Amino acid sequence: MLGYERSYGTGRFVCALIEIFGWLLVVVGGIVAIIGFGAGGVLGSGGFGSPRGAVISGFLSATPGLATVGIGLISIMLTQQTKATLDTAEMTRDLLAISRNSTHGPFGTASKSTGQASGVRQEPQLRRREPLAKGDIASDGQDEKNQKSPWK
């Protein structure tokens, strides 16, 4: 982003540490899953009595490594979400400062010192309509006895 002040240093530091830890979990979990799959296939080959049993035991042995990879990816995702929240807070603060420094006063009304009209849309004034007189014709071309409302 261009030219906004970075703050929340502690939050950003903690996010960086957790993100590094998450990437370490992904790498270590991947290695554990590969080793577990290989060792489970060899060790479990006689246990189930068929080559299919070796594949199943390999996947079961790789499960802790795959779970570690999943936990690492979730921690990375959450740190990136937290960084996005911190960026949103910083940019919102900048937008508030811009809003306060505009030609409008502190509550969105026109500033009395500039004499300019407010950029806020003005709503039209509500006015009450008079009831129809006995001989008047309604606006849709019908006479008053066919009209349900006594107001124009």
Which short descriptors sum up this protein?
single chain, 152 residues, mainly alpha, 0% strand, elongated, membrane, transmembrane helix
Shape type:
elongated
Major beta-sheet overview: none
- Described by its quaternary structure, the protein is single chain
Q: What is the number of E strands?
A: 0
Q: What structural class results from the helix and strand content?
A: mainly alpha
Strand content: under 5%
Query: What is the CA-atom radius of gyration, in angstroms?
Result: 35 Å
How many helices in DSSP terms? Answer: 2
Give the rounded overall mean pLDDT: 75
Query: How would you spell out the order of helices and strands?
Result: HH
Distance between the termini: 56 Å
Uncertain stretches of 5 or more adjacent residues: none
| Helix residue percentage | 55-70%
Set out the fold topology.
Blueprint: H1 9-43, H2 51-100
Helix pairs in contact: 1-2
What is shown here, in short?
This protein is mainly α.
Please provide a written account of the structure.
By secondary structure, this protein is an all-alpha fold. It has helices at residues 9-43, 51-100. It has 2 helices and no strands. Helix 1 (9-43) runs antiparallel to helix 2. It is elongated and about 100 Å long. The two termini are 56 Å apart. The mean pLDDT is 75. Residues 124-133, 142-152 have a biased composition (Basic and acidic residues). Residues 101-152 are annotated as: Disordered. Residues 101-119 have a biased composition (Polar residues). Keywords: Membrane, Transmembrane, Transmembrane helix.
